[in-house]
Amino acid sequence: MCTQGITISTGEARKRYGQPRARELYDAFRAAVDVVEELTEKEGIDCDFTRCGRLGVAYKAEHFERKRAQQRDLAENFGHETVLLSRDELRAELGSDYYHGALLDPLSAALHVGKYVHGLAAAAERAGARIHERNAATAVTREPDGSFLVETWHGTVRAKQVMAATDAYTDRSLPWFRKRLVSVGSFVIVTEPLGEEPAREIIPKARLVVDSKDIGHYIRLTPDQRLAFGGRAHFAPSDPASDRRGGAVLKREMAEVFPQLRHVDIDCVWGGSVGFSYDRVPHAGQADGVYYSMGYCGHGVQLATYMGRAMAEVMDGRPEANPLRGIGFPRIPVPFYNGTAWFLPFAGAYYKAKDRLM
């Protein structure tokens, strides 16, 4: 998913930063989708990019009323036109009675992220970059002259500038950043091919679907007519056993949303990690000489792309190119936190209970 919009509500952004700054951030995050589209066209990246639109579906009736207020706010204060769909109107967009309506953003996009990453790598190499895979950095040390030594599995690199773009995979080589991010497991199942007609009955216009739960789901059709159904199935890191457990949870939850898929086979399940900052917004800048951009809070496909371009300009002497300038990491709210999120199961239990009961 390559979706428009900020990682917090527009109301919260306005409260924190004021309307002009909130609008600036919102415009940057909308432009991020344009940058992805531009790169796929310019570099010839075949990754099934399409502006299919995103349905923000309301899990509860009161969530739909928030969508109504959100539509007005987006139009009046952010120049973003969306379409509000009642529960009855949503039936033309989604083969499910599970939700109470939706807000449709027609310009959000879908793409195959694996193909996109390979295409970016090929484009970078054509531009002269050298990519060293399977060679982790293990320590970053600043020298008295301001340069850096980066120790890796296979040698040491001296660099004038260092950029940390590690997000959810920030490890002990960058301890200052590791303490300021929480790595959350995210899991996806993909069904067997459904066939064109059954697939179109599920999501007739192949929209992206994201629900309004605190522990929500993200849903889409793939180009070969499978349903991809993802979410924070359980609060544990991704590994083969954890992925299987997450897949079982997601299959049960998929059947709640789409009872007609109860007996469909699941062909694939996988997991990974998503990087969250404590204030749920991305952060980018410089800390002890190290440039950084991370904490995308589930919006990394488009924001990491956009911020890669922005931070390249910052490192070339144009600090105004950073749309996140001046937004520092908040104080660490969890005592003795060193990057191992021992508290996530408790947080997950609270938010799942909140989704059910509140």
Automatic annotation (TrEMBL):
SUPFAM superfamilies in the cross-refs: FAD/NAD(P)-binding domain
Entry-linked Gene3D superfamilies: D-Amino Acid Oxidase, subunit A, domain 2, FAD/NAD(P)-binding domain
Pfam annotation, one family: DAO
Listed InterPro entries: FAD-dep_OxRdtase, FAD/NAD-bd_sf
Positions of the FAD dependent oxidoreductase domain: 19-313
Coiled coil: none
Descriptive protein name: Glycine/D-amino acid oxidase-like deaminating enzyme
Source organism per UniProt: Streptomyces rapamycinicus
